[in-house]
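Weekend entry, working from home. Most of the wet-lab plans are on hold until the incubator is repaired, so I used the time to fold the two sequences that have been sitting in the queue since the last round of cloning. Logging both here for the record. First:
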Amino acid sequence: MSENATKVLLSIDTSTKRLLLGLRFGGDRLVQSSEDSERSHGQFIIKKIGELFQSASVQLEELEGIVVCVGPGSFTGLRIGIAAAKGIAMALDIPIVPVSAFEIAAYCLRNLKEVVKVVVPLNREECIVGTVNKGTHDPDKIKIVKYAQLFYMVKNDAVAALGFHLHERFPETPAKDHTEILNYKAADLLYLGIEKILRGEIADTATLEPLYLQKSQAEIRFEQRQQDK
């Protein structure tokens, strides 16, 4: 897939309660959709994608690629977004470009000079934490951390949360909070997708899965225990 093949590109992000869609067309034109919902994205994602194409006066058959956020994030949301991307991609025989939540965070936080711990909710007791530093992140250093131990692990680093507001849950946290910088748009996801297309980073549509399913929680915890020895 070449640079010229990115003229019509769809982005899908269902990793949080916000359904984020974007459509790049006509070389440099863009339409976006962002909607917060307490309901399952599966109830309206196909309708919203159709409305996006209609607003751009673009036919679905003109689509040349899909950029999808693969998480980590909401288990149900990610499955819905990836399933929609795979269904469209297979029907049209077009590629999918996966972008992780930590790649998005690294891009959004790229202008900060300090180290930032990016926090993604996992369940009521635990979260997933990755480290972002000057626009990069290390996928091998993503950890599952109990909320009770989060700020002990963060220490003097700044924090930023994806999918929720950290200070609303922990109003007395001493850490500097850059969560607002992570309020990204579909245009950011499309930009990252195009960059990956130019590097040839295309997913295998048949085997594409949410990021945190590539390793089970048990495997991640085992590796973490080995690293801490």
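Second, folded right after the first finished:
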Amino acid sequence: MSKNLLDIKDLKVNIDDIDILKGINLKINEGETHIIMGPNGSGKSTLAYTLMGHPNYSIEDGEIEFEGENINDLKADERAKKGIFLSFQYPEEIPGVTVEDFLRTAKSSVSGKKMGIITFKKVLKEKMKELDMDDEYASRYLNLGFSGGEKKKNEILLMSVLEPKLAILDETDSGLDVDAIRIVAEGVNKFKDENRSILVITHYDKLLSYLKPDYIHILLDGKIVKTGGIELAKEIDQKGYENIKMEFSN
């Protein structure tokens, strides 16, 4: 039986005195892939940032437990060290810092162990090959001049290097063409194993056929209103959210 990794209990969150999450309940076990879908403004990214400990998001009620420990009051870096990772929808450009230097520093910071330059170069090269990334990416400044697809692949590369227990992917598939979606999905599938879990936040079902998720959750107006399998995503793709909105309002 797989062990519970993340347990969200009646989570209520506001930002700038506006209630965004209004009672989220969600359990993720080791080795599972969960998908959160929902229209714009439903609270998807708020959930992602709250799980990562963004200081602008205030937890008003409820609990976030990670491996049985309440992490409500932990800062983002403390959560990262416990094994939580968030890929950003809009990754920052950092002039003067190469991809390789950033990743090596991030790995050392999260793991608490320094990795030799030569050893890290070998690891990085293998990870980049899996994502169909040219070796020259490593020497480029972080995200500077990168296309949208390159930035998203770079986030998956960071996830692969850090090897978190829970990876939260926020709109990783937005703006990607079919080939880039396939490569990103393959990177996610290679990362996932029986001990690692994935939480994907998305509008679309393009990524889902590659990921084969265990659960699809529909988030509306700050609450998870419906949970199902891949058929739920297909229903959304064909009919949109109107039927679910009507069902929920009734």
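Plan for Monday: verify the second prediction. The CA atoms of residues 104 and 120 lie 7 Å apart.
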